Amino acid sequence: LMVFRVNQAHSRYWECVTNVNQVRGKWFNAASSIFAFCSSADEKAEDVKTFQHTLVRLVSMLYCAGLRQLEEKKVALEILNNDGMDQESLHFLDQANDQCEIILQWIQKLTIDASHAGTVNVAAPLLTRVFQELGQGMFDLNNVRKIRDVPFPYPYAHMIAMFLFLHCCITAGSTAFVIETDYLAALGTFISITSYVGVYYLTHEIERPFGDNMNSLPIADYLHDMN
To answer: Distance (Å, rounded) from C-alpha 126 to C-alpha 148?
Structure first.
């Protein structure tokens, strides 16, 4: 059971690390693709500049909202800024339960409007790749939210805790009975119990690596790199 517990915690930790970085990579790639698809015509230069500035702000807000859902609001996260955003829309976003879905919809609508206006000049089949990257990023984010929301099954955790308690009691008694030297018996008991209890609490520390302690993922650094 202890080996199973450690393996599950290790798997959950690396799944969090992998998916959080995949979200960043896919949303960055989507934004980069849209930039490449922008029109190069001189008469569209101002529209392209406005569109790109709005897009990068929305992508920054999107990644920030995604990370905010994971880290339990203990870490200060900063976006680029919200200049040019409609205040009524920002107020609506602030009241929303799932901000990522709303911001994602804003990005998609902004891209479609830019495509119709000629600001984004690319064939529709190529533009759909952007939406696929955005959607895949949301899929990876939901995988991380699954780990945050669904804890290790209680029956397993209860059984492990019970056997760990029995191990502590039996180890102390059997060591004192088998080893005649007091300090050797105490040392053997200390090493055995500390090893198992330490591994048990280590799994609690790494299976949900979100927060502000030293073993948590550097969420703020991820957002800073994205910005």
So the answer is: 34
Q: pLDDT tens digits for 166-195?
A: 888 888 778 877 777 777 878 888 888 888
What's this model's pTM, rounded to 2 decimal places?
A: 0.78
Q: What 3-state DSSP class applies to 120?
A: strand
Q: What share of the chain is helix, strand, coil (3-state, %, to 5)?
A: 80, 0, 20
CB count, 10 Å around CB of 62? 28
- C-alpha span between 171 and 201 (Å, rounded): 19
Contacts with 19 (C-beta within 8 Å, 6 or more apart), sequence order: 140, 141, 143, 144
d(C-alpha 84, C-alpha 102), whole Å: 17
What is the tens place of the pLDDT at every residue in 110-151? 889 888 888 888 888 888 888 889 889 888 888 888 877 787
First to last CA, the chain: 43
C-beta separation of 119 from 48 below 8 A: yes
In the block, tokens 């008991």 appear at 189
120 beta partners: 38
